[in-house]
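Before relying on records like the one below, remember that each one covers exactly one chain. Contacts with other chains, cofactors or solvent are not represented anywhere in the record.
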Amino acid sequence: MDNNNDLTHFIFRVQIKDNEVYPPLELYHLYVDITKEYPVDSPRVQFIIYDQVPLDEDEDDEVQVVEGIPKIPMHPHVYSNGHICLNLLGEDWTPACSIESTILSIQSMLAANHCVERPPDDAQYVRHAPKDPKQTSFSYHDNDV
């Protein structure tokens, strides 16, 4: 979790079990930014590189974001920069959705995946993508994955 006092930035750990695509002990991290428009508008959600590093031996719970090896899960709807093409994060968002249900939907999306691949336009998208995934107008053309 971010150290801000307004509780709008969170980092959630996601692990996928019993799926041959994802190593059993691999953790993926989702950054969730609750915008001022929430719950009317979806939060900003994306996978991030997040290596846990204790800041002090006595403060094992404290972590910081550092440069590291990308741990962005392989999925046909997850770009290598961590952006997620999921209609729940865009046009299908409703105020009835919660952060918990959003994280669960993403975890379920990964758990149901059996393809070790990125979206077909990954290289081009990442090259031109805005930093904020909410600024992207995704085309939802594949509901089978």
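The longest helix spans residues 99-111.
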